[in-house]
Amino acid sequence: MADSIMSKAATMEIPINSNGDTGTLTEDDSLEQDLQQVMVSGPNLNETSIVSGGYGGPAGGIIPTSTIKGSSNHNASNSTEEVTRGVAVEKLDSVKKWGINTYKCTKQMFSERFGRGSRTVDLELEAQIDVLRETKNKYENILRLATALINHFQCMVQTQQALGDTFTDLSQKSPELQDEFGYNAETQKLLCKNGEALLGAISFFVSSINTLVNKTMEDTLMTIKQYENARLEFDAYRSDLEEMSLGPRDAAAMVRIEMAQQEYQIHRDKYERLRSDVTIKLKFLEENKVKVMHKQLLLFHNAISAYFAGNQQQLEQTLIQFNVKLKPPGSDKPSWLEEQ
User: Fold this and answer.
1) Where are the alpha helices (DSSP H) in the chain?
2) Structure confidence by residue, pLDDT tens digits, 122-140
3) Confidence grade of residue 39 (pLDDT, cut at 50, 70, 90)
């Protein structure tokens, strides 16, 4: 019976064209017609894709397109997760190293403070650093006093300007005292003009001192701070290596000692590099300080002397000699737009 059913299925009459004509198709004819249809219209990729086993092959060789797309999205998601996980691990390692370094440096700092630990000292360099800090404090005092002198002297010049304007007005309204008021008005205007010239010289002096103190010296002190931090780290890892060297020498301990030796060498190189940088900067700072202060002190002396001696010509020559440019009257006042 089974053989009969198979024989009928192999020779079944079915439509073979669009007109409804029928004919007998064998299994080979059916396969050939299906292949021709695929070659003409192409496979329906929206439904299935044949990846193995051929047409009409086993069901395991046919994978839905949606499954392929889902697999691609899944792979992209896995790649993103791996990148995120890698960044997180890197940050965790960075925090771990920072924590270990902070612990070692804090331990070394307290050991030095309570006299239980040793520290690396460069006596000559430490002396130069102390001199620089003391010099900076004194120059800051000069800067503060010179700024106060400018403020007080500017008030005096403004008062002289107002007094001269008042004398001029009274000379026009008091005919019987016109000459007397006129003389005093001219004197106050001359003093005001010389006062503005002196203010320009002192302002130039203050500006140069401010650059020297708050930029040049401050830059060197920042490098010194980095050097001191490197010195503390170097001593911390040096002490750690010395403690490990006094302990047991088994295999695990030797691995830790080798790692500590590497960390020690890294921080030693950093300490020596920054020490060299500080030495060079201190040398150039000293040369620059002498050059700047020689010029500015000479300017300050000549301008003050010429003003109080009433020597207007010498005061003007001093400004020209040191290339001091005076600001036009009223330039310090805010503009109308700024006031709004």
Assistant:
1) 2-10, 27-41, 65-113, 123-173, 178-211, 218-245, 251-308, 312-321, 336-339
2) 999 999 999 999 999 999 9
3) very low
Q: Are 217 and 136 in contact (CB under 8 A)?
A: yes
Mean pLDDT score, 243-271: 87
| Residues shown for the chain | 340
Report field, pTM of the whole predicted structure over 0.90:
no
CB atoms within 10 A of CB 144: 11
Indicate the SS3 state at residue 13.
Answer: strand
Residue 258 identity: E
Phi, psi at residue 244, to the nearest 5°? -65, -35
Could you report the per-residue pLDDT of 150-201, keeping only the tens digit for each? 999 999 999 999 999 999 999 888 889 989 999 999 999 999 999 999 999 9
The angle subtended at Cα 120 by Cα 114 and Cα 126, nearest 5°, is 100
In the numeric block, the tokens 């490197």 are attached to 230
Task: Please state the φ and ψ torsions of residue 285, each to the nearest 5 degrees.
Answer: -65, -45
CA distance between the termini of the chain: 108
User: Is-contact 207 323, C-beta < 8 A?
Assistant: no
pLDDT band at 74; cut points 50, 70, 90: low
Contact 190, 177 (CB under 8 A): no
139, 206, 157: which is closest to 307 by C-alpha?
A: 157
Average model confidence (pLDDT) across the chain: 79
Q: How far apart are CA 310 and CA 198, in angstroms?
A: 11
Alpha-carbon distances of 102 from 84, 137, 242, rounded to whole Å = 27, 31, 19
* Cβ pair 167, 182 in contact under 8 A: yes
pLDDT at residue 274, as a whole number: 96
- Interaxial angle between packed helices 218-245 and 65-113, expressed in degrees from 0 to 180 and rounded to the nearest 10: 90
The answer to whether residues 177 and 289 touch, using CB atoms and an 8 Å cutoff, is no
Average pLDDT of the residues in 280-296 = 95
* Burial label, 237 (beta-carbon count in 10 A; 0-12, 13-18, 19+): buried
